[in-house]
Design brief:
alpha/beta; seven-stranded mixed β-sheet; two-stranded antiparallel ribbon; about 45% helix; about 10% strand
Amino acid sequence: MTTLSTRPDRTAAVTDPAAPPPAMRLRELAFGAACAAAVRAAARLGVADALGDEPATAEQLAAAVTAEPKPLRRLLRALACYDVFSERPDGTFAHTEMSRMLREDHPRSLKYIALWCTEPWTWAAWPRLDDAVRSGDTVFDELFGKGFFQYLHQDAHESAQVFNRAMTTSSEQSAREVAEVLDLTGVASVADIGGGQGHVLASLLEKHPDLRGSLLDLPEVVAKADARLREGGALAERAEIVPGDCRREIPVAADLYVIKNILEWDDHSTLLTLRNVIDAARPGARVVVIENLVDDTPSMKFTTGMDLMLLLNVGGAKHTRESMVERITQAGLRIDAVRPINPYLHAFEAVVPD
């Protein structure tokens, strides 16, 4: 088993002479909502989509997105401070690597992720973070009178659409990386547990022509599974779609079980899912749990933010490497290795014991 790495000392920050002084940095952090709102405004206006390869003036961009030139210049100038767009000496604005990812047609577009992280309900929930920290529980039900997903699908249809687009985009991008990293030597069948629309499964089936697979998720989720997996799809003959709740039962036999980014519930639900895998699997079957971590990764600023959002909206939590190892071994699995997939995701490779 891979040993746990020693956590870096985050109290001893390296002094950067070019960095702003602490008082200015703290002011910037306190004004972080302005930066998030600026990213959201640019995404909703479609500024990145309107800006091509050549720099453009605020007037030209304003005409393209139906906005007023002077306020748009102020928005772009604020974003340029964070390298989202750049302002040139002649007053025109050009793309940066980050601003291009706000384009809808970018292969690694983050447009809908940016919109999802700044949806209207978030602005009501964030100011209640101190209450969530005091209680250790979600504040969402008290704010909106119902649970998060119930509210999303009943009362916030536009937000639900943004959520679906964001999750689809993120899943499609990471699924390709998962397929590249996972070693499927000796694996003839794979089960994607709680796999949403099945992007990981589809990527694995495309990469391995002899592989067969199953997708398990809630009925309303798998009803919208990736078209490649559904009847008539390019991978349908090698794919089985199974409606169900992995916390209740996993009626799927496979050589490899993949569980990606769903073990963010309470500990009881997490253990139920892992033990249901053990009940369904043969001894020696492999289980790969893929999760964002809140420690020892380059993505800590984003992932710890998502961790706090989970506390606010559903009462869930992102894992540390140690807590994920603890849950997996407590369920009865044997961990063989922990490997990075990308800066955001780690794979915990485990085996069902004899």
